[in-house]
Design a protein that fits this description.
- By secondary structure, the chain is an alpha+beta fold.
- It is about 20% helix and about 25% strand.
- The strands form three sheets. The chain has a seven-stranded mixed β-sheet with strand order 14-4-11-12-13-10-15. Strands 5, 6, 7, 8 and 9 form a five-stranded antiparallel β-sheet that branches.
- About 40% of the residues are buried.
Amino acid sequence: MAQAWRCAGLRWSAAEGPALIWDGARPSPLTWGKRVSFGVVAGGVRQCVGARGNPCPVRAAVPGRSTGARCEECARLDRAHSVAADGIADDPRPYRVYLAWFGPGLVKVGITAAERGPVRLLEQGAVCFSWLGVGPLMAARRTEELLRAALRVPDRVPYAVKRAVRSTLPTGEEERAGELREVYGRAVQLGDWPESLQRAPFQPVDHVRAFGLAGTSAALGEVSELVPGGSVSGELVAAAGPDLHLATGLPPVTGRSSVTGLPSAVGPASGAGARSTGRRGVVVLDTRLMRGWRLVPAGDGEVSFPVRQFRVAEHRQDGLF
């Protein structure tokens, strides 16, 4: 039987791009054209990944569709120490406030530790973004709340919505930055900004090239869950946030309308081939679904995990403009 591995998820670096992380923090750098092939051990059970670097004390089983891969208790402990959940109010580090755009009608506001730079935006799959300002944590948080209340800009956009609009992105950087520019203009006109927050000029950063989304085929759907004995194999054509876009043997999508590894398989030893999607169908794999499973190498073949098709839809934020 082949050696089984456990995946810790996808990690982004502004300089080096995406990499899958395995047991022992071993990375598998990902490049366009690389073959991603793995399967779930037959008869396997997905186990909770624990919290804050500690294993789950009861090794609880978790559902295949859970993106958190944690049991209820471990999820509670992990979120208790999260800035996003206001679990840390006295963090002395400076924080940046940003506006992020994920596709037509999808703008959000958020904060990230200044020392992380743009990594948080890469992790979220932001197609483009601009900083709003930098300051103490609570000042950044108050600014975030100000935009949510005054402009009705959300602080979250579901990943399912982000994926569904990626095939409808405008082709030009100026057009992709248009909605950000309008929201930024409205934001800086608001009163009641915290005095301790230093404002930043509008300087949009575009991630289409970093994600490999330019010129790629529209995805036909997404892997909804991993199942014991199932497998996936495809050529990496793009990556955004936790998502890998894999060209597979499934029937392709024509036009622009959207419709609703293991170290040995995708690691340094695997070569990156030329990038050509041909007529193959592209499937999106959320790498968070890989966590908690025992994974083994798989040969080239079709996707045998359940795939949920995308459906054409408009995703506009009510009251934003």
